[in-house]
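User: Here's a chain of 80 residues. Predict its fold as tokens.
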Amino acid sequence: MSDRLIDLTDQLERAAARLRAGELDQPEAAALVDECARLAAEASAELDRRARAAIAEQPPGQAELALDRGPAAPGQAEIL
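Assistant: Prediction complete.
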């Protein structure tokens, strides 16, 4: 089974390489930038889905703790 995030990352890296090469005309580059935005949105949705699934798998009460925990104070390590 292929990991969708790896596939999306590979596609984004190939698109970035094409953009950096500077060989595309303006309409092609604009279309590729739009494709990158679509791929990034898809990757974001997949990450969100995975995070929500991981929280849902927590024992009772743990999901609320994970959601309620704020960021660590500056200079303090985050306790997991």
